[in-house]
Design goal:
- The protein is 68% helix and 0% strand.
- By secondary structure, the chain is mainly alpha-helical.
Length: 66
């Protein structure tokens, strides 16, 4: 598999040494956005698996009915 579902989602960059509170808040926001992206990819991957399993079950039922 290629594309965004196969790639790791990188963490947000840490603030520099001596960062201000605002820098740390911006880091927290960025890290949360990366987590949201990762969760979206994970859900999409599981959706693909669920659809494939449903397709396979339906085909299995068809073949057993013959």
């Amino acid at each position: 598999m290629q594309g965004p579902l196969a790639a790791d989602v990188a963490a947000a960059d840490l603030p520099p040494v001596g960062a201000t509170l605002a820098d740390w808040i911006a880091f927290g926001d960025a890290q949360t956005a990366q987590l949201d992206k990762s969760n979206t990819f994970r859900r999409a991957g599981f959706d693909v698996i669920r659809r494939c399993e449903a397709r396979d079950r339906a085909l299995d039922r068809q073949l057993k009915a013959r």
